[in-house]
Amino acid sequence: MYLIGELAKQCNVTSDTLRFYEKNGLLVPSGRSSSGYRLYNDDNLAQIRFILKAKQLGLALDEIQELLAIRLEATKHSCAEVKAITQSKLNIIDEKIAQLTDIRLALKSINDACCGHVDEDASHCSILSALAELEEKKD
């Protein structure tokens, strides 16, 4: 059994992080000590590691909570349910990558068009002009 500080140290997170997960329903202590301290077991340790790995992959807390619920009752769920969650996240990431690619291309285009001369004052800067034109087209 672990106290909250010991579990936090094992997972390389803060006690506040564990309290946050508990408050948001991602973590349930396995019990309380006679003094009222939260107690955690190896299942809780594995659960925190699962949460941290899912966060590394960009999953939101609600998605992680859904995956944890499926994991706890795995025999009542299918792999298709789990895959639907990750596929949805992949679709969102693909959309963001496409948007960022478009932004990068537009920014590179106006950056490349700028002479960048130190001698020339910014009133003639093609980047400022391009941004102003984009704003006018937006309105």
Automatic annotation (TrEMBL):
Gene3D superfamilies (UniProt xref): 1.10.1660.10
InterPro entries membership: DNA-bd_dom_put_sf, MerR-type_HTH_dom, MerR_fam, ZntR
Transmembrane feature ranges: none
Cross-referenced SMART domains: HTH_MERR
GO BP terms: DNA-templated transcription
A Pfam cross-reference name: MerR_1
Keywords: DNA-binding
GO molecular function, one term: DNA binding
Domain HTH merR-type: 1-70
UniProt keyword DNA-binding, yes or no: yes
Identification of the protein by name: Heavy metal-responsive transcriptional regulator
